[in-house]
Design a protein that fits this description.
25 helices
């Protein structure tokens, strides 16, 4: 029983004494206010943020700010960290930053806020140029994410990451040595990222969450980083990556990335695919049965960011693989898409594909393009181009008209010299309708550009003169 007039406690327990608690904390060298400030050391001299307690107090405050979630706090902390590095000439004070910076670099360089990513690369530039050779023990850890940072969708951040890489490792040979040194870690990271991000995004809905945006950005960076990695790699050593590359290609997830409803991912996929065909043709040839239909059946693409990339892949496929036409149904699938694309004036993507039209017909076999076939390719091809040229309207589109008309004349000249027996009849069938339209229709799109292209065409004819 408690005494009359005293404060009762539950269970008649003895109240805690703040004086005794303070004495206990001081005995262990801990300030009682540390409990409220978040500065309580955990164990072995490391606090809850993973920062050594022996670190300069000013630096410790900055590093703790960098671990916060708030973007504004992190941006200010990056600025303070750069000022701290500039103010301290001793590399020993900067060296203690490296482990924590490397540990958090992945999170900072893939942050959802592009300002944080930009500040991260600016700070990495400052630290990297001070540390230089001291980065070597951390290189295998940081390089995979560093390559991804060089492919950031935010151009300032990407350029800073690339610039630091070029400054630290001058010359192609040195850059190739670095990626070869960390090749296993790079391939492992890229493979994991492709698998994880594709799993998250494969069932992506129209109303996506912010996490989906983050995975979309990461997957875009990974695909571009794979191409960049192969470009850095020495050509005669790329075969060392064969087994690791096949892990990506054999999983099946890679070949479904173009189906994800994201222009950003699809464009990075076709950029990556172009680099793969260009840089490792012997490895990628094993997967041509997947590549060729995927590319050839996509040529009627309307999206300006995708269309030129698909056509570039189409041409490099034709240059690399000899049996492309055996792997597609050209009559029912490819040619109808090609004609539709041309009739619609390349869907406004003339500048992106104008230089691909001549290489395309140069690679079409005589079994398809020949006059004796049932495909009527020559007639359908040029008729579709003529419809596309004449469909372009407006003064602002004159450059498109001129470019497409030049491509038309180049293709006409090639067919005239290689696949036409009745040359005069062929020229009459193709040129006279355009001239007639030019003379009778005052609103004709080719009215102001036809004469120049026509005379250029006549001067190019080798076998005869009209």
């Amino acid at each position: 029983m408690s005494k009359r007039g005293t404060q009762r406690t539950r269970g008649n327990l003895k109240p805690a004494s703040s004086t005794k608690a303070t004495a206990t904390l001081l005995t262990h060298g801990i300030s009682p206010f540390a409990l409220f400030s978040g500065e309580l050391p955990i164990t072995n001299g490391i606090d809850e943020y993973g920062i050594d307690n022996d670190v300069d107090p000013e630096l410790r405050v900055i590093l703790r700010k960098l671990t916060k979630k708030d973007s504004t706090t992190k941006i200010r902390a990056f600025d303070e960290l750069r000022d701290y590095c500039d103010a301290n000439e001793s590399d020993d004070k900067i060296r203690v930053i490296l482990p924590l910076f490397v540990f958090h670099y992945r999170k900072w360089s893939t942050d959802s806020d592009q300002r944080v990513r930009d500040e991260c690369q600016s700070t990495f530039d400052t630290i990297g140029m001070r540390m230089k050779k001291n980065l070597l023990p951390h290189l295998k850890t940081i390089l995979p994410i560093w390559l991804m940072a060089q492919c950031d969708s935010y151009a300032p951040a990407a350029s800073k990451a690339k610039f630091l890489y070029a400054k630290l490792f001058t010359g192609q040979n040195k850059q190739a040595e670095v990626v070869y040194f960390a090749r296993n870690e790079i391939m492992s990271t890229l493979t994991d990222e492709i698998n994880q991000c594709s799993d998250v995004l494969k069932d992506k809905k129209e109303n996506e969450m912010e996490t989906d945006d983050a995975h979309e950005r990461r997957l875009t960076q990974v695909l571009l980083a794979l191409g960049l990695f192969l470009n850095y790699f020495e050509a005669n050593k790329r075969s060392d990556l064969t087994s690791q590359l096949k892990i990506i290609f054999d999983s099946g997830k890679f070949w479904k990335l173009d189906k994800i409803k994201s222009i950003q991912i699809q464009s990075s996929f076709y950029r990556c695919l172009y680099e793969l065909i260009n840089l490792i043709p012997d490895v990628i040839r094993e997967y041509k049965t997947k590549i060729i239909p995927l590319v050839f059946y996509a040529i009627n693409e309307t999206e300006p960011k995708l269309c030129p990339l698909i056509w570039d892949c189409l041409i490099i496929c034709l240059d690399t693989f000899d049996d492309c036409w055996l792997l597609v149904n050209h009559q029912k699938a490819f040619l109808p898409k090609l004609y539709a694309f041309l009739r619609n004036a390349c869907h406004g993507n003339v500048f992106g594909v104008k230089d691909c039209l001549l290489p395309l017909i140069q690679k079409i076999p005589s079994t398809i393009i020949g006059e004796g076939t049932n495909n009527h390719f020559i007639e359908n091809f040029f008729q579709a181009m003529e419809e596309g040229i004449l469909s372009i309207k407006g003064r602002q589109q004159m450059n498109n008209v001129s470019s497409l008309l030049k491509a038309y004349m180049d293709c006409l000249l090639y067919v005239l010299e290689n696949h036409s027996t009745g040359q005069l009849v062929f020229l009459n069938d193709r040129l006279l309708p355009l001239i007639r339209r030019l003379l009778t229709d005052k609103d004709c799109s080719i009215r102001n550009v036809y004469a120049r292209q026509y005379f250029h065409f006549l001067n190019s004819i080798q076998s005869f003169r009209l």
